[in-house]
């Protein structure tokens, strides 16, 4: 493999780790399987990451960005604040439908981290990343639309993560698109009801 920058190597290893986890499960995502997936030597992993924990944290941040970046992009679209709320929720949901394996990995990763000594901080960091991402999204929506919220942003972020996390897990197990869509609409209605127009 030609010489590549450390940041690019890290990104390639994270994406390879995600592919291995989707295909084989988190427990089978060894450093050897990840570097093999990336087409790199084992030394590349140790040169790029201090530990497997650091890699897992990067996996979480990358998966979160896959959905968050799409939602933030939708906030810049035309339309009123209600349209933007629904568009952001829909962008997340379309990612779930298109990438169910990636979302399964997030739940598996949480449980894996909690069951392995020394990795519990990975699960804690996972949900901190979700809340940070949701907070940024909620704040960006308020700024782009000139509105405020009837509850503190950290509370709304936790509520939103709880609803979307539960809805995603339910859909992954149930596979009922129509019921999931109806629940997503209800979540949108409730989120919109928390908006105060200035």
TrEMBL record:
<keyword id="KW-0805">Transcription regulation</keyword>
<dbReference type="Pfam" id="PF00440">
    <property type="entry name" value="TetR_N"/>
</dbReference>
<dbReference type="InterPro" id="IPR050109">
    <property type="entry name" value="HTH-type_TetR-like_transc_reg"/>
</dbReference>
<keyword id="KW-0804">Transcription</keyword>
<dbReference type="InterPro" id="IPR001647">
    <property type="entry name" value="HTH_TetR"/>
</dbReference>
<dbReference type="InterPro" id="IPR039538">
    <property type="entry name" value="BetI_C"/>
</dbReference>
<protein>
    <submittedName>
        <fullName>Transcriptional regulator BetI</fullName>
    </submittedName>
</protein>
<dbReference type="InterPro" id="IPR009057">
    <property type="entry name" value="Homeodomain-like_sf"/>
</dbReference>
<feature type="domain" description="HTH tetR-type">
    <location>
        <begin position="7"/>
        <end position="67"/>
    </location>
</feature>
<keyword id="KW-0678">Repressor</keyword>
<dbReference type="Pfam" id="PF13977">
    <property type="entry name" value="TetR_C_6"/>
</dbReference>
<keyword id="KW-0238">DNA-binding</keyword>
<feature type="DNA-binding region" description="H-T-H motif">
    <location>
        <begin position="30"/>
        <end position="49"/>
    </location>
</feature>
<dbReference type="InterPro" id="IPR036271">
    <property type="entry name" value="Tet_transcr_reg_TetR-rel_C_sf"/>
</dbReference>
């Amino acid at each position: 493999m030609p010489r590549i920058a450390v940041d690019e190597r890290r990104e390639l290893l994270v994406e390879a780790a995600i592919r291995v986890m989707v295909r084989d499960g988190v427990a089978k995502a060894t450093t050897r399987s990840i570097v093999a997936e990336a087409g790199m030597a084992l030394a590349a992993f140790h040169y790029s990451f201090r530990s497997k924990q650091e890699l897992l944290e990067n996996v979480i941040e990358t998966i979160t960005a896959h959905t968050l970046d799409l939602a933030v992009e939708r906030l810049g679209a035309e339309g009123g604040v209600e349209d933007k709320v629904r568009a952001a929720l829909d962008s997340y949901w379309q990612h779930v439908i298109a990438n169910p394996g990636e979302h399964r990995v997030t739940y598996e990763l949480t449980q894996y981290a909690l069951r392995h000594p020394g990795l519990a901080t990975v699960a804690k960091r996972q949900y901190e990343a979700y809340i940070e991402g949701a907070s940024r999204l909620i704040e960006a929506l308020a700024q782009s639309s000139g509105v405020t919220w009837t509850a503190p942003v950290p509370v709304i972020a936790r509520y939103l993560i709880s609803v979307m996390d539960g809805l995603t897990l339910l859909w992954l197990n149930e596979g009922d698109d129509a019921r999931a869509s109806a629940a997503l609409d209800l979540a949108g209605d409730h989120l919109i009801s928390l908006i105060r127009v200035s």
